[in-house]
Design a protein that fits this description.
Elements (H helix, E strand, L loop, with lengths): L36 H10 L11 E4 L6 H15 L5 E5 H14 L2 H9 L3 E5 L8 H16 L3 E6 L10 H8 L2 E4 L5 H15 L5 H10 L3 H14 L8 H11 L5 H11 L4 H5 L5 H17 L4 H7 L5 H17 L1 H13 L5
Helix pairs in contact: 3-4, 3-5, 7-8, 7-9, 9-10, 11-13, 11-16, 13-15, 14-15
């Protein structure tokens, strides 16, 4: 049973019992041209052109750098193009929680609620950032239920599948009644397609060699979008942008991370400490993690082999070279390891 909107949650209140919905989220029921995840995202965005109540609320979820905020803004843009007089509200979940707390303190709860119930479209970014704010989650739950019942849309972005998040289960259940769209980091072929699309949109003419280099040197949609926008701004009306111009943009956009940051990210990913990697342990999993750290430092910084070896317990350059060769060989043979390294690279500071 829905909680009445007038009732205010208290810190001591216990949520009523809840069980997961009988069916999984509607991730496969949307009519698609193919099973490609990119087609699913495109189909979800087309809902803004002619919304279907069965898919309200709409949730985009995925890790950092997969374009969640961009999808929200694209949805809002398409909606506004067709219905410019519809009220569209965009906010982060953190801003919502902060405004809710202020409304409680100042007695402005009625206006706060009315502003968020009205309007045909409400977009909320960063939902998982309020997992520690239960009162705000209760308020958000009631507002979403009220909006959906009135036929007003809610579109949400979150970093994790909500069913595995620490959000209150009632809010998860409410959001599960709509459509959930997973966003993933693009593989090499998808990056190539995205580069082509972005270059057409921004009227950027990349040489084939530069396009290949951009595909190989980026990992996320955010990185691709940032680089192409920088190229468009720096080289307008340029006949063909080559690798030299691309390298200039890449150096400015992605400064070399500190080697210690790389060591810390690798250690975290493999359940070790930075001290383990710099130490003398010859345990197999430590040796392999150490080699991956050396490889990433070699790829992402200007350190020499001698300097890299010195970071790891004053090892010499030949030891560092051997570890890098071993890590490179494993990387070529193990798709799972390639995926792990891609995830590590996204956690290193200075990556978009």
């Amino acid at each position: 049973m829905k909680r009445p909107l007038e009732s205010q949650p208290t810190k001591s209140s216990e949520p009523p019992a809840w069980s997961p919905p009988a069916t999984d989220w509607k991730t496969a029921t949307l009519e698609l041209e193919s099973s490609d995840s990119r087609d699913l995202v495109a189909a979800a965005l087309r809902l803004a052109d002619g919304s279907q109540a069965d898919y309200n609320p709409l949730v985009f979820f995925g890790p950092r750098g997969t374009g969640k905020t961009a999808r929200l803004r694209e949805f809002a843009r398409r909606w506004s193009n067709l219905a410019p007089n519809d009220g569209v509200r965009f906010s982060t979940a953190v801003d919502f929680a902060r405004s809710y707390a202020t409304a409680l303190e100042t007695g402005g709860l009625a206006d706060f609620r009315q502003n968020r119930i009205s309007g045909r479209l409400w977009l909320i970014d960063g939902l998982c950032q309020i997992t520690d704010k239960r009162e705000a989650q209760w308020e958000l739950l009631q507002l979403i239920e009220t909006r959906v019942a009135a036929g007003n849309w809610v579109v949400v972005a979150a970093e994790h599948p909500l069913i595995t998040s620490a959000l209150i289960p009632q809010l998860v259940g409410c959001l599960s009644s709509g459509l959930a769209v997973p966003l993933e980091h693009p593989d090499r072929e998808m990056r190539r397609r995205v580069i082509e699309d972005l270059c057409i949109q921004q009227d950027v003419r990349l040489s084939p060699q530069a396009a290949t280099a951009l595909c190989e040197q980026t990992r996320t949609l955010r990185q691709l979008e940032h680089v192409v926008l920088q190229l468009a701004a720096r080289y307008p009306d340029h006949d063909s942008i080559g690798e030299r111009q691309l390298t200039e943009i890449m150096i400015a956009a992605f400064p070399s991370p500190h080697p210690r940051s790389i060591v810390a990210s690798v250690a975290r990913r493999f359940g070790l400490s930075a001290r383990d990697l710099r130490g003398t342990s010859r345990r197999r999993h430590v040796v392999r993690a150490r080699g991956i750290a050396m490889l990433l430092i070699r790829q992402q910084t200007k350190l020499s082999l001698q300097e890299i070896g010195g970071l790891f317990g004053k090892r010499d350059h030949s030891t560092a070279l051997h570890a890098i060769h071993q890590a490179t060989h494993r990387l070529q043979q193990d798709p799972h390891l390639r995926k792990q390294i891609g995830e590590i690279e996204l956690t290193v500071p200075n990556s978009l």
